């Protein structure tokens, strides 16, 4: 199996506070990794560093064996678009676009519109949002926003999926659908990192870590 992602001794300080301490992690294709830990422990910070949304104070990040640590913003944005799908707490959806348009957005330059629209509609239907295609993000609940964000993340079948508390705000049946979609992507070869408070979800992953005092401890 190939390494999709490698973190080498990543540390992060906010001001003088150490949040992440020398974290090393390898993500292989077709593997789901769960990260649990206390609230405020740095899980979201870790995920946003992995996704090149913010930089670490020290350490290296390799994506597909390329060291991207020193890439500029534009280069990192290109890697993000190509390699990552994000399912984050604050889904960055565009308020002036409909649900369907938001989900199709990542594909506008790379796919025929019809093909992208078909897959987007299929994903949104799977996630119980068939009746909401023409809604705007501000007309949706948090749980619905989370599912729109998951559909958008899955649209282009990215090699790496990063999910921050993907089952929050969802009832058990919908949580199951979302978790199934993430593991289906894993089965199709994606590397998936899931930050979660849910021990049952963490147990389902191939490898589970706990973030404790800034260190990643394998469970
Ligand atoms: N931009 C920032 N500047 C300063 N401190 C920050 C910043 N972002 C996060 N922090 C602090 O870093 C710590 C880790 O935050 P983070 O959101 O990564 O934790 P978390 O484990 O994801 O928490 P939760 O489970 O509650 O979502 C917290 O104490 C938080 O207050």
TrEMBL record:
CDD domains: ABC_MJ0796_LolCDE_FtsE
Gene3D superfamilies: P-loop containing nucleotide triphosphate hydrolases
InterPro entries: AAA+_ATPase, ABC_transporter-like_ATP-bd, ABC_transporter-like_CS, ABC_transpr_LolD-like, MacB-like_ATP-bd, P-loop_NTPase
GO CC aspect terms: plasma membrane
UniProt entry keywords in alphabetical sequence: ATP-binding, Lipoprotein, Nucleotide-binding, Transport
Pfam families associated with the record: ABC_tran (PF00005)
Protein name: ABC-type lipoprotein export system, ATPase component
